[in-house]
C-alpha cells in the first residue's frame, strides 16, 4: 500500500475552490446535507476504497458517497458493463431489455418482491410508494418515525432532526415546508410497537401507509427491537394499511436481499436506491403485485424521464453480480465487526465512553452513551462535539468519515485498509486523550 500523505496535510486548493464555489453555488455544495462537513474538501478522483483530494492527499473512504459505493470506485467489472452499454445507448425514454433482466433479478433476490418499478433516486421512489399506497387504500395519511429520513420532499422531511422540545409533534425540517403539505404526515417515536398499535387502532381507516427505515441508519444506526418490524407489518395488515420499508440504505447492504432477507420480513413495499447500482443513479420500488395493480388498472401513475435509463440498468446489474460473489456479505459484516471492536477497545483504553450501533457494513459511533440508542431521542444525549474532534483527527490520519458518526464499509476495504484504519484509530484516541 502506497504511503498516505498525512504529515502537514494541507487543504489549500480545497479552500480556494470552496471560496469560489460559495460565490456561485449556494453554500458551495450541491446537497445541503454536505454543508456541515468540515473541512469542506474537493476530491478529484477515487479508486477502490480511496478518495484523492485536489491537494494531493489520499484517504481511505468510509463515506462511500453516503452509501452507494459498496463496490468502491473504478471497479473493473462495473466499468466494463457501463462502458459497453454507453456505446449502445445512454437512455432511450423507451423500454430496454435490461429492464426485464434487472426486474427478474430483483424479484429473484428480494424475498416477497413480485414486481418492481424503476426510478432514479430514493426520494422519488419513496414518493411513488406513498402515491401507490394512497391509491391502493383510498386514504391520505402516512405514518413516519422521528429521526427517519425518506428524502427531501415536504411530506416526508418531517421531524427528521427535531430539537428535544419538538419531540412528539410533526415539525418541518427546513424552510419552505408549509404546514398543509405535511398535515397528512403523522409522526411516532421508533421502536415503540404500542404507539403504532394505538395509532392504527384509532385512525387506521385514515392511514395509507407506515414507512420506516428497517435499521435507523439516518439517526445513529439504531437496531429494531425483536419483533418490532414484524409487529409493524402485522398491525398494518390488520388495519388495511400498506407497510413500506425504506431500504435505501439497508438494501444490498445488510444482505443481498437487504432487510427482507436479513430479518426475514415481507412488507408490502420496499424502496431501494444507493448500493443497488454502486454509484450510478438508480432506484427501485419493489413489492406485492396486488399493490402495484393500481398502476396497471390506470388508477395512478409512476413516471420519470430517466426511469430505466439503460446505462444505469447496466450498472445495477453489474453491481448486483459483483455483490453476489461468494462470501461477499460475510466479509462486509466481519470487517464492520472488527472495526467496531477496535473502536470500542481504543475508547476504553483512552477512558472514553463509546458505544457503536448498527449491523454489518453500516454502523454509528456514539460518544458519551453507555447503551446503544433505541431511537432518535436516545441519540440526542451523545457527545457530537467529541465525534467532530475524532473525525478531524481521523481525517489527518488519512481516514475520511461522514460528519454524523456513521461508517459505511464496502467490498474494496480489505485487510490492508483494516490494519491502516486500526492504527489511525489508535493514534486518534491517543490524540483525544491528550487534548
Ligand atoms: C433511508 C433513505 N431514504 C431515502 C433517501 C433519499 O434518497 P436520495 O438521496 O437518493 O433521494 C435516503 C438518502 O439518504 C435515505 O437514506
Automatic annotation (TrEMBL):
Its cofactor is pyridoxal 5'-phosphate. This is Aspartate aminotransferase family protein. Belongs to the class-III pyridoxal-phosphate-dependent aminotransferase family. Keywords: Aminotransferase, Pyridoxal phosphate, Transferase. GO terms for molecular function: transaminase activity. InterPro entries: Aminotrans_3 (IPR005814), Aminotrans_3_PPA_site (IPR049704), PyrdxlP-dep_Trfase (IPR015424), PyrdxlP-dep_Trfase_major (IPR015421), PyrdxlP-dep_Trfase_small (IPR015422). SUPFAM superfamilies: PLP-dependent transferases (SSF53383). Pfam families: Aminotran_3.
Amino acid at each position: 500500500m502506497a504511503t498516505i500523505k498525512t504529515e502537514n496535510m494541507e487543504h489549500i486548493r480545497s479552500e480556494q475552490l470552496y471560496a469560489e464555489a460559495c460565490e456561485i453555488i449556494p453554500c458551495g455544495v450541491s446537497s445541503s446535507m454536505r454543508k456541515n462537513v468540515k473541512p469542506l474538501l474537493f476530491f478529484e478522483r477515487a479508486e477502490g476504497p480511496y478518495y484523492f483530494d485536489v491537494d494531493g492527499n489520499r484517504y481511505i473512504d468510509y463515506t462511500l458517497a453516503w452509501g452507494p459505493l459498496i463496490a468502491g470506485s473504478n471497479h473493473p467489472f462495473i466499468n466494463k458493463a457501463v462502458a459497453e452499454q454507453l456505446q449502445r445507448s445512454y437512455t432511450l425514454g423507451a423500454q430496454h431489455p435490461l429492464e426485464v433482466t434487472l426486474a427478474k433479478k430483483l424479484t429473484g433476490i428480494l424475498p416477497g418482491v413480485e414486481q418492481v418499478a424503476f426510478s432514479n433516486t430514493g426520494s422519488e421512489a419513496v414518493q411513488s410508494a406513498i402515491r401507490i399506497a394512497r391509491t391502493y387504500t383510498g386514504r391520505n395519511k402516512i405514518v413516519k418515525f422521528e429521526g427517519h429520513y425518506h428524502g427531501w420532499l415536504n411530506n416526508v422531511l418531517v421531524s427528521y432532526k427535531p430539537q428535544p422540545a419538538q419531540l412528539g409533534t410533526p415539525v418541518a425540517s427546513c424552510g419552505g415546508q408549509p404546514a398543509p403539505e405535511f398535515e397528512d404526515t403523522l409522526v411516532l417515536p421508533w421502536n415503540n410497537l404500542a404507539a403504532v398499535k394505538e395509532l392504527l387502532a384509532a385512525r387506521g381507516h385514515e392511514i395509507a401507509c407506515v414507512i420506516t427505515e428497517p435499521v435507523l441508519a439516518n439517526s445513529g444506526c439504531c437496531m429494531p427491537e425483536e419483533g418490532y418490524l414484524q409487529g409493524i407489518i402485522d398491525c398494518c395488515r390488520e388495519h388495511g394499511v400498506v407497510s413500506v420499508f425504506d431500504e435505501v440504505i439497508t438494501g444490498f447492504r445488510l444482505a443481498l436481499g437487504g432487510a427482507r432477507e436479513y430479518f426475514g420480513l415481507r412488507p408490502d413495499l420496499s424502496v431501494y436506491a444507493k448500493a443497488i447500482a454502486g454509484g450510478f443513479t438508480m432506484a427501485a420500488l419493489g413489492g406485492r403485485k396486488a399493490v402495484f395493480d393500481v398502476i396497471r388498472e390506470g388508477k395512478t401513475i409512476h413516471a420519470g424521464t430517466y426511469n430505466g435509463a439503460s446505462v444505469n440498468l447496466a450498472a445495477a446489474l453489474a453491481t448486483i453480480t459483483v455483490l453476489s460473489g461468494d462470501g461477499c456479505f460475510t466479509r462486509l459484516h466481519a470487517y464492520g465487526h472488527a472495526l467496531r471492536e477496535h473502536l470500542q477497545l481504543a475508547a476504553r483504553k483512552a477512558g472514553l465512553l463509546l458505544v457503536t450501533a448498527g449491523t454489518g457494513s453500516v454502523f454509528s459511533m456514539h460518544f458519551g452513551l453507555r447503551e446503544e440508542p433505541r431511537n432518535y431521542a436516545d441519540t440526542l444525549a451523545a457527545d457530537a462535539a467529541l465525534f467532530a474532534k475524532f473525525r478531524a483527527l481521523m481525517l489527518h490520519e488519512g481516514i475520511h468519515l461522514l460528519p454524523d458518526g456513521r461508517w459505511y464499509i464496502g467490498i474494496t476495504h480489505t485487510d490492508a485498509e483494516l490494519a491502516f484504519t486500526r492504527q489511525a484509530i489508535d493514534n486518534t484516541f491517543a490524540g483525544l486523550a491528550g487534548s
